[in-house]
Amino acid sequence: MPSHARARRGGVISGTVGVVGELLITVGVLLGLFVVWQLWWTDVEAVAAHREIVSELTFAPAPEKVATEHHEEPPVAEQPPFGATFATFYVPRWGTGYEEPITQGVNKKQILDPKGIGHYPDTQMPGELGNFAIAGHRTTFGKPFARVDELQAGDPLVVRTADTWYVYRVTSHQIVYPREYDVVSPVPNTPFGDPNVKRDNRYITLTACHPRFSARQRFVVHGTLAYWSPVSEGTPKELVDAGVKVTVGSSSTANGAS
To answer: Which of the residue ranges 14-18, 33-37, 195-199, 212-216 would you say has the lowest mean pLDDT?
Structure first.
């Protein structure tokens, strides 16, 4: 092959390699920006959105004292319409600033991404005999259940509606596949919808994707109701002692120690 032909061919190959290299760099940059958006910016936006949702709840303030524990049958609210935020959630183990809204529905694009924690509509309401089951992201979009795997038996899980506090305590956890829907049955891990299964307790169930950055399985935490208290009587001891900040229904940013 003549030297000028070889030079021309080498130039073409070199140019092609250069173009491909530039395209790969561009794709790499775009992927990097997508990762930044997915893992960081969605959190920034979602955290701000969740705070705004909580601030817009028209809940009455709780008196600045420890609420009395009630063990009789608790009040139970009606199921809200899809998309309605009806409660807030507190977990002392997850920090003093953890306060997340709970909204009816578990649709990813409409509820879990923009609004945080979602309530499975075909499960019971807080305090109701059966299973109050909720879902949340473990990564991205505010990741309200990021630390779900850190929960331990006995940890308090506190739900507040407009008028009532419900204090649950963790009893167990399990890892399942998405098709194993019986974890949110009225009696967890019994056939969902089986009329022969009697509701025997007041449960709470948390579900989140597992492992992190994957939807292959679900990390599930179960708990049972320890007691309830009217909001008009104060704030649960578990929140006051831990210095958990309760902003809903209050111009103050804290109940108890900071």
So the answer is: 33-37
Let me know: does 126 contact 164? Beta carbons within 8 Å.
yes
Bridge partners, 223 (sequence order): 170, 204
Return the SS3 of 209.
strand
Any idea which residues carry the catalytic annotation? 137, 209, 218
| CA proximity to 172, closest of 140, 204, 124 | 204
Nearest to 119 by CA among 129, 95, 109, 131: 131
- Separation of alpha carbons 81 and 165, rounded Å: 21
Residue 13, pLDDT > 90, answer: no
Q: What is the pTM of this model?
A: 0.83
Specify the amino acid at residue 230: P
> Collapsing DSSP states into helix, strand and coil, what is residue 184?
helix
